Amino acid sequence: MSKISLLLILIIAITCQIFAQSEVVEAVKKIPNASLRKRVEQFVRSGIEKALDVAPNADSMAVQALSYLHSPYRSGGITAKGMDCSGLLFRCATDLHTTIPHSSQEIARYGKVVANQEDLRRGDLLFFGSSKSKTINHSAIYLGDGQFIHMSSSQGCSIAHINDPHWQSRYIFATRLYSLVSEEGMFPFEMQKLVPHDSIHINEPMIEPNASLLK
């Protein structure tokens, strides 16, 4: 690789880093609860926006999550027999041959922060918090059209709306998973293979996704 190519890559990397930092600052400023905002600032300083060795395809994450729709909630669970919120993200990533932590707060350290909700894309990871508990205590996968899929302690794997006042008051930021290099060593590498599983369903009322989200 020539010196000019290396210099160009370095310039692009620095530009992306500056842009990413501005996204983080903007995201934190949008948190309405002052106490939660202060805790998120401390969380950010302890390290975020990490890259994965291999990042899953975002659309595949959303599709894989939908395949678990109606699965029951189980604290600490990571299978279709029962999962918690971070267990759903962990399960979907594992199905797509990617390793992420089984903790909402630790998963939030990975991926580029998306500051504006209008910029959310299908497959982005959403994080929520509370001033009364852990900084980040809930996570979900964005489906598009304002909907996300998550594990509810009362409804199991279900779909909710990000514009719901309950979720808006707890919303922190979203991240978009990425990997530093591809097999060729330059561009993000995305896994796309879906792994089938036996889904377990429960009969509880919940919001169903728009038909367009299942395409």
Note down, in words, how this protein is organized.
This protein has 215 residues and is an alpha+beta fold. The chain has one domain (3-214): endopeptidase domain like (from Nostoc punctiforme) (endopeptidase fold (from Nostoc punctiforme), Alpha-Beta Complex), CATH 3.90.1720.10. It has six helices and ten strands, in the order ααβαββααβββββαββ. The strands form three sheets. It has a six-stranded antiparallel β-sheet, with helices on one face. Strands 1-10 form a two-stranded parallel ribbon. The chain has a two-stranded antiparallel ribbon with strand order 2-3. The longest helix is centred in the N-terminal third of the chain and has 27 residues, at 3-29.
Could you give a short description of this structure?
The protein has 215 residues and is of the alpha+beta class. Helix content is 31%, strand content 19%. Helix 3 crosses helix 4.
